[in-house]
Amino acid sequence: MKICLIVEGCYPYVVGGVSAWVQMLIRQMPEHQFVIVSIGAEHTQRGQFRYELPPNVTELREYFLDEPLESSEAAAPARPLTAAQQQALLDLVRGTSPDWPRLFELFGGKNARTARDFLMSEEFLAIVQRLAEDTGRNTPFKDLFWTLRSMLLPALELLHCPVPEADVYHTVATGYAGLLGAKFSYFAQKPYIVTEHGIYTREREEEILKADWVPGYFKPTWIGYFRALSQAAYRQAGTIVSLFQGARELQIGLGAPEAKCRVIPNGIDIRRFAAVPPLDPEPHPLHLGAVLRIVPIKDVKTMIYSFYRVKARCPDATLDLIGPYDEDPAYYEECRDLIGRLGCRGIRFVGRAEVTDWLPRLDLVLLTSISEGQPFVLLEAMAAHRPVVATNVGACREIIEGADDGIGPAGRVVPVMSPEAIAEGILAISQNPAQLRALAENGYRRVVRFYQDKDFLAAYRALYREAVQNTNREVSRPWQASALN
Hints:
Distance between the termini: 34 Å
Strand content: 5-15%
Largest sheet: 7 strands, parallel
């Protein structure tokens, strides 16, 4: 079977998280061939791979949002937009439910209109004027014009990408990757699967609400736009996968059809951690650790503040930050400066390392992210018989406390961006060695029962098999071509 895997902002340029999931999926399914379509933010990433591509990757296509994606060949003279096409574009910029098949055909079909031609046309100007009259009366027209142009350009250019040959199309997010996957599936008339590790629409909404570069009057426009992109993926997909029940409920609330939504948890190879020794029962200084990328979403600064508070009670405590720190050099320097200002000794930036070499040295594993899906780092810590303290994001509470599984907690769940609560959580469970060992055993039992890679891989093998078997049914193209006539 040939599977086209469409990824955004991760594989093969970024280590860990979704990228690790993609690498595991491909490597553990050598019976299938994979075509990777990777959407990156900046063209400087081209060829800068952080993973060795497995031999069953037959092709990698790289597209970047900061460079032209369309062919340099001369385009055919543009045909005037129909009223239905104009309405679809207006619905897109309004953030309502656009007629995506019309947009697929307009920008990705035979004699496709180029994005740049459209965005420099009087027809685009007319759409901006319509929006200004409807909802943008208090918005400077020039700002509205250039905002909409910059917003639409990457998505409309992506629709121009050629369709790779595959039996199944699978995206690991909605957003731009989800849009491209929906377009591929629509034209190839082949099944389409969406897996969301985090809920893309919610993550973009949080970013936009906090962003200084988006004026307040444009925030609803950007939020609605990303919601519309996700709707393209939700509508075209035959199956929509989330990692835990709470994420599935969010997807349904955002418009994903309930009958399409299912949960497949992440899984890990617990045999990798079989040689990790149990926690040392003898008295010794507290040794904390975190396996992470040094980037803002991991909120390393809050972890540093939390550790500073822990040091007040446990002066000999240490904290190892295990993972790459070159992805966001400016943030890394900010973290180092914060440590210096606090005068907080005992923190070490380890860099990229093999987690199985470091977990034996730790008493407790931390995660202070402001957004997560279902973190591998927690599952790996628990497989190594290490208790965890994590912020209440994504599936962290479900992983640590369980969903009425009768096992008991594997650590402590704490509020986001609260150094006081995080430090208190660390101290509350670390001062009693017997309690630490009990939490560690609970975590190990939960991973063995619910989060093994063999179960995760079996679920995806079945999902791919079912998708191909259903190809002849009218599930791979829910929008009828007749609707465009």
